[in-house]
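chain below, 443 aa
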Amino acid sequence: MTANTGDDDIPQRRRTRTAKLASLPLGVAGRATLGLGRRMTGRSAEEVTAELQAKTAEQLFAVLGELKGGAMKLGQALSVFEAALPEEQAAPYREALTKLQEAAPPMPAATVRKVLDEQFGRKWPERFREFDETPAAAASIGQVHRAVWTDGREVAVKLQYPGAGAALMADLTQLRRFAWLFARMSPGLDVKPLLAEIQERVLEELDYTHEAQAQRDFAAGYADDDQIMVPRVVASAPKAIVSEWMDGRPLSSIIATGTQPERDHAGSLLALLHYSAPARCGLLHADPHPGNFRILPDGRLGVVDFGATAALPGGYPESLGRLTRLTVDNDGAAVMELMRELGFIRPDVTVRPQDLIDFLGTAAEPLREDTFTFSRAWMRRQAARLSDPRSAEAKVARQLNLPPSYMLIHRVTVGTIGIMCQLEATAPYRRLALEWQPGFAKE
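prediction:
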């Protein structure tokens, strides 16, 4: 077996990774200077801007994809918010960010064999009838290989990149310096809290034993379900998971080329997963991006990657359902009282009830009608009203507090809605909330 010198691992030296990340803002500045020169030669501003944005997107994928780790994790998280961008800004980044959802430069075969030796022992080949050393998919901290288990089942073998832990923490530390750059791609999104929240979750994702148990819990919760499919775990180790193989069309493909019925179907199933998982599994799938979902040939939503989950043993908090219902009913006084009780409004802060309704009411639109059409235009309107510091909504937002116990639920909800806006899906969002959200239905 070929000796591994470490050159095939995720680049771990801080100086190397920092230099690569630093190339992003430097590249932006260099292209801006180049663009000025090209405009002086007579090319239109529109032509130059389009070309520069395309090159920025290309560099974004190259750097984040090569580094994997936390850099790629942030890219995946930002890809969900792409729907909030104006179309002329979003188009050049869409393809590059979509690539980050499912692809990354793979580990060489020698490194793959070394990881399998470490996790399952040197006799690991005896567990498989076949093993394809070329990865079927590669993501932020691991890659997936297709294989055939000893009993004949087709399986997916997920292996963690060597050095993933060090790379993750180094990236997230360095990326804080460049938060302004990523924020330019998602107006209205405060990237620093997103980075902090990602940092809290990624250490859990490094423990594949924890992930395998979460996947088992999800598989049990949706066993024999006719709408959602979670592959069963066959074997696991601290840095490897073997689970049943699942064919299907990636959600990114439906976002790009799906028909309207396909979009509506995918969006409805995604909303069903979001609302029902805490009640059925006691867990929230906390990594919503299109690369983690498939539409199976039989029409079910296939779900993968359970590294980021949150325990909600009683389902969604009943108080959150009540708050949502009061907002839908435009009961500003009751909303203010409950938000104070839950810690969203600090004791020393004064907010007018009507201002709260104006701030929350638009976001509650999907729950006011039996069905709602999510769209990029709707998402852009939400981002615009919050990103303008002069707007009344932005002023209210600055006065509110997001309690830590609700932070992850908020991010996952916004991320799921972001995907549904990318799908431009019409979905029975209100009906699902009535069925699965404790406290939302009227007594």
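The chain has three domains: 14-101+166-186, 109-164+202-244, 318-436. Residues 318-436 form one domain.
thats it, cya
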